[in-house]
Amino acid sequence: MEADEDFVLDNEAAEIQRLGLPEEEKKPTDPEEEDERIARIEFLCSGCEMQEMVHYFGRKPPFSLGIKYPEDNYVMRDPFQPPPPRWQTKAEYYISLGANCSICSKTVCKDPGCSFYYTATFCLPCGQDELKNWPVEAQARIRKQLSASQGNKK
Ligand SMILES: [Zn+2]
Ligand SMILES: [Zn+2]
User: Fold this and answer.
1) CA of 48 to the centre of ligand 1 (A)
2) Taking the CB of the first residue and of the last residue of the chain, which one, N or C, has fewer CB atoms within 10 A?
């Protein structure tokens, strides 16, 4: 019955609202809020020299709603997505471009030709130096990655 369905839907909406995150204080769109959407942090991969401006560097992007990275990441809001409406409690789309090598601190992107992740991010040269200390499985993975990236060298 239509009437019943409506009733259920209404209830659900109420329920979701009740369980939802505490609503953020309503504030009029102020200039600062607009600024937040401008990428101001420079990301430059030491491997492939990809350069991008990103919105956030750290572990817990304010726009990711609850996501916490195990290490500092360069995070960019998805430029192809419109900002979510104010009331939306879903995270907007975002991309982590890369992180810093846990040994030499060089910035590397997520490309397999630039970085390797094993418990932390390593640039490939550091990964190559470190791999002897890693379990065989991780060694096999990075060796594969290293040979693939060398094969790809232009
Ligand atoms: Zn790169
Ligand atoms: Zn390194």
Assistant:
1) 4
2) C
Structural domain that includes position 51: 30-152
Question: Distance from the CA of 111 to the center of ligand 1, in angstroms?
Answer: 5
Tell me, yes or no, whether 20 lies in a domain. Answer: no
Give the ligand with the smallest distance to the CA of 104. Answer: 2
70-126 per-position pLDDT tens digit: 999 999 988 677 666 666 666 678 899 999 999 999 999 999 999 999 999 999 999
CA 24 to CA 34: how far, in whole Å? 17
Rounded distance, CA 100 to CA 109, Å?
A: 9
Would 12 be classed as within a structural domain? no
Look at residue 1 and tell me if it is in a domain: no
Judge whether 10 lies within some domain.
no
The helix (run of H) or strand (run of E) holding residue 145 is: helix 136-152
Question: How many separate domains does the chain show?
Answer: 1
| Closest ligand, as measured to the CA of 120 | 2
Instruction: Give the CA count within 13 Å in the CB-facing half-sphere of 87.
Output: 2
Give me ligand 2 centre to Cα 97, in Å: 16
Residue 16: both structure tokens together: 């979701």
